Amino acid sequence: MGQKFCPFFNSINSGSDIIFTAMIDLQIKSAIRDIPDFPKPGIVFKDITPILKDPSLCEAIVDNFVARVQGLKIDAVAGIESRGFLFGLQLAGKLGVPFVPVRKAGKLPFSVKQKEYELEYGTATIEVHTDAFKPGQHILVHDDLLATGGTVTAASDLIIEMGGIIAGFTFVVGLNFLNGKEKIKHFADKVVVLAEY
Ligand code: AMP
């Protein structure tokens, strides 16, 4: 069946399923809880934990990602600690590829490569095991939320330094007013954001 078009919804054909991106956007937004001034004054924290109480929404999120990365060469999914593990591992499982944990400094026990980066709040260092993937492999980078793009930029720079190729990005949430998409678009054409603010 060919791709269906609808004037109100941007639809995606995943096998026999038509997944409406506008619907998942609304479902995610109605589940997300805004926490003002967390973890510090001025930040409105997008709490995704209510999504985790809804197994069918979790499944729809992963299915949407799978549908929207169809056609990309993906050898592994890299998920960023810690909320990037929630859907990143499930996505890797559905795609049938390994999962690469991108962790905060000092958490990974084997030999690591690391990178320092800036957050919307504060700074941090991320690490990847040196044997997490092979040079030349195509890595899909996943996190729960795209804000300024600093975190995934650091992760992508690290993956590239380790010989990987950035296949694309998936995020549950994007804060468009912080222009993260602009910052990361040079890494890969495919940037999937399910719920955009
Ligand atoms: P950034 O590097 O600015 O794109 O920030 C993205 C990372 O910080 C993700 O791992 C998010 O989990 C976290 N983050 C940044 N801002 C927020 C926010 N307003 N609400 C929830 N998480 C956030």
From TrEMBL:
Q: How does it assemble?
A: Homodimer.
Which Pfam family is an annotated match for this chain, by its short name?
Pribosyltran
Q: Name one GO biological process term.
A: AMP salvage
Domain Phosphoribosyltransferase: from-to ranges: 71-165
Q: Which NCBIfam families match?
A: apt (TIGR01090), PRK02304.1-3 (NF002634), PRK02304.1-5 (NF002636)
Q: What do the Gene Ontology cellular component annotations say? A: cytoplasm
Native organism is Mucilaginibacter galii
List residues traversing the bilayer.
Answer: 158-178
Q: Which pathway is recorded for this entry?
A: Purine metabolism; AMP biosynthesis via salvage pathway; AMP from adenine: step 1/1
**InterPro entries, alphabetized:** Ade_phspho_trans, PRTase-like, PRTase_dom, UPRTase/APRTase
The yes or no answer to whether the keyword Lipid metabolism is present is no
Entry GO MF terms = adenine binding; adenine phosphoribosyltransferase activity; AMP binding
**The organism's lineage?**
Bacteria, Pseudomonadati, Bacteroidota, Sphingobacteriia, Sphingobacteriales
Q: Which UniProt keyword terms apply here? A: Cytoplasm, Glycosyltransferase, Membrane, Purine salvage, Transferase, Transmembrane, Transmembrane helix
Q: What is this protein called?
A: Adenine phosphoribosyltransferase
Taking the first listed entry, what is the main subcellular location of this protein, grouped into a coarse class? cytoplasm
Quote the function comment for this protein.
Catalyzes a salvage reaction resulting in the formation of AMP, that is energically less costly than de novo synthesis.
Where is this chain's protein located in or outside the cell? Cytoplasm
| EC number(s) given by UniProt | 2.4.2.7
The UniProt entry, under CDD domains, shows: PRTases_typeI
**What is its EC class?**
transferase
The record's comment on protein family reads: Belongs to the purine/pyrimidine phosphoribosyltransferase family.
